């Protein structure tokens, strides 16, 4: 009997799941850093150092990533990641503050204009739902979102 392609894929996926049971399998911060470092080394392999040395370091780093992902010592791998996060906390905090400060300066005009808007709060004459509208708009047509009653209000 011939098996279909989708059945073979499901079988492969099932075998993969059985293989990965009890393994660390996470692409955590330490693995990401090792992987990105190895890719950067691979890109600049002929520029910085000898190509052979960089290639060896590249494969060693990739080997560590694969070893960590396939390791059955979950607690040990988790502790390694926590130590890495603790060691790089100051760098990550600096980068987060730098990007946050950059975002704050870019969005200042928008937040100031939003903060200056004063609202008038009133209730729907039909159902009593509290509504609000920007102050100083004059006569506006208001539709209650609760009961869909429409009326004109001076704000």
Question: Layout of SSEs?
Answer:
Layout: H1 5-20, H2 29-43, H3 51-70, H4 74-87, H5 89-106, H6 108-116, E1 119-123, E2 130-134, E3 139-143, E4 150-154
Antiparallel strand pairs: 1-2, 3-4
Helix pairs in contact: 2-3
What would your notes on this structure say?
The protein has a two-stranded antiparallel sheet with strand order 1-2. Helix content is 59%, strand content 13%. With 155 residues, it is an alpha+beta fold. It has 6 helices and 4 strands; from the N terminus they run H-H-H-H-H-H-E-E-E-E. The chain is elongated, with a radius of gyration of 30 Å. Among the domains are: 21-88, no CATH class; 116-154, no CATH class.
What is this entry, summarized?
With 155 residues, the protein is α+β, with helices and mostly antiparallel strands. The protein contains six helices and four strands.
User: Could you give the order of strands across the largest sheet?
Assistant: 1-2
Look at the structure and give the mean pLDDT: 86
Structural class: alpha+beta
The helix/strand series, from N terminus to C terminus, equals HHHHHHEEEE
- Main sheet, how many strands, which sense, barrel? 2 strands, antiparallel
N-C termini distance: 78 Å
Unreliable spans: none
Count the E strands: 4
Overall shape: it is: elongated
Strand content bin: 5-15%
Kindly state the percentage of residues in helix.
Answer: 55-70%
* Count, helices: 6
């Amino acid at each position: 009997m011939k098996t279909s392609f989708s059945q073979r894929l499901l079988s492969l996926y099932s075998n993969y799941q059985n293989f990965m049971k009890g393994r660390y399998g996470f692409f955590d911060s330490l693995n990401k850093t090792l992987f990105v470092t190895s890719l950067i080394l691979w890109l600049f392999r002929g520029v910085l150092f000898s190509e052979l040395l960089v290639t060896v370091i590249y494969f060693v780093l990739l080997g560590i990533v694969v070893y960590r992902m396939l390791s059955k010592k979950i607690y040990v791998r988790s502790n390694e990641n926590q130590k890495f996060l603790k060691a790089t906390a100051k760098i990550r905090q600096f980068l987060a503050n730098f990007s946050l400060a950059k975002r704050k300066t870019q969005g200042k005009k928008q937040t100031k204009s939003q903060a200056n808007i004063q609202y008038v709060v009133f209730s729907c004459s039909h159902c009593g739902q509290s509504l609000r509208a920007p102050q100083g708009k004059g006569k506006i047509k208001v539709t209650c979102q609760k009961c869909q009653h429409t009326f004109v209000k001076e704000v």
